[in-house]
Amino acid sequence: MGGLARRVGYSNELSKLTSGQVPILQVDAGHFFSDVVGEKGMATDTRIKNSWMLRAFAALGLTAANVGFRDIPYLSMVMESAGFEERLKQYPALGALVSANVEPADASKRGFKPYVVREVTGGRLGSKPIRVGFLGLTEVPATAKNVKGRWILDGFAIAEPVAVAAKLVPELRARCDLLVVLAYVDRNTAQRLGTTVPGIDAIVAARQYNLYNGVDEAGDAVVVYASNQTKHLGELRLYRDEKEPAGAISNYIHRDVPLDAAIPDDPATLKLVYDARAEFTRAQRDARLVGDTPEEAKAFEEQRRLLAVQSPFAGAERCASCHVQEYAIWKDSRHAHAFKTLEVRQRELDATCTPCHTVGQGERGGFRDARLTPQLVNVQCESCHTPGKQHGDKPAAGFGAVPTPATCVKCHNKSNDPDFEFASYWEKIKHGNGLAPAAAHSGH
Amino acid sequence: VRKAVKLAVVLVFTITLAGAIFSTFLHTVQLAGADGPDPKLLSARLGNDDGFSLVVNYSGDYEGSLEPCG
Lengths: 444, 70
Description:
heterodimer; A: alpha/beta; six-stranded mixed beta sheet; four-stranded antiparallel beta sheet; 15 helices; 15 strands; 33% helix; B: mainly alpha
């Protein structure tokens, strides 16, 4: 599900359906960059990945992309004033970024346009162009620091979004026929924007939402939610009332389009995606290369040994020493081969994918990568049951970690797996003497 | 007789090879057909053209990924 090549492919097909009579505007509500930052800052592979996102946005012909607070770690580098003009030439999509409430904390960084207005013409829009305004906002994250009354994150100051909208919406309203707010905010803030700031027609919100498949109405505004990772492409189809003055939009339909195998990939975009994958996979592999001297190889082995010894995760093979039947069921399940699906697509080093295909990534002693922690690839017992080494050492002490359906939907959410339904999925991995999952481990 | 046997062996080998190539080709064509987009499903994804005038496609939370995980 998802992917930029399918998004462009869908747009091509939609254009054919309407014989090119209907303009299609592409926008993004925020968090398009990875914000994975390690102890030594943002790794080279992550920076490469983000730079390809900028190239892809340019190829997509994006009208506006809203700066979400999670974009700021990367933007703090590419918006540096020094050398910015050259970067803008290299990445024209930087010019499409909008934010009304994120501004440089000092002169060392460049800022963003608060909004853009796009004049749109089309066969069904009448003689007068329609002016569509897009205003960008993000919430203030908990990680921002209060410095002399301003919330600062990585060299940018972030103001309270609703207050900023109240100030700027009247100004933008006077310049456009249709006003859309792109907002990287939680659902309450999205609705508060609609109910407290008059003049907004639509609010497109993102904040890692599961597929919502509906809209909220807040004041005069309609609120729609972008699904996490855009596995479903959000769509507003807008209708012009023939009786209204030229340019007036009188109605809309909202759709969440599954970007699945029914949508053909756009060949040119697919090439861009493959080029991006090749470059950043190469960088990831380079970053993980182990030196070929005996000393370096020995140091790597020692690091691997220590990670295994110090980890609270035991690995499925250890569980198998007592839980023979459960292990056999797991071994035949797709969970036991979950890492292979990433390797086939060369995504095994991608930190946005690996958490749902391994054990304990992000936790102490959890999965790092397939070379350092090979015992923790695939979805294993401890992916659901939590670390079990202590239990393995002292089985009599019991083991309280009993998963519930809520455990499954951390990965089998509506974006990743729209068809997930607990009862039928549980049948595929049913274990624990055939009891319901809640009772399966009561014997411990 | 030796010539006839030799000819027969070459003939059998050629027919087998041709059959294998044709079978692989047929299988590839069938696979391509099975994996290609289904026009009915695509039509369902696109919906009806009922006269809409403007489309806004929106996304969020790409997290730097241009393609799905797997």
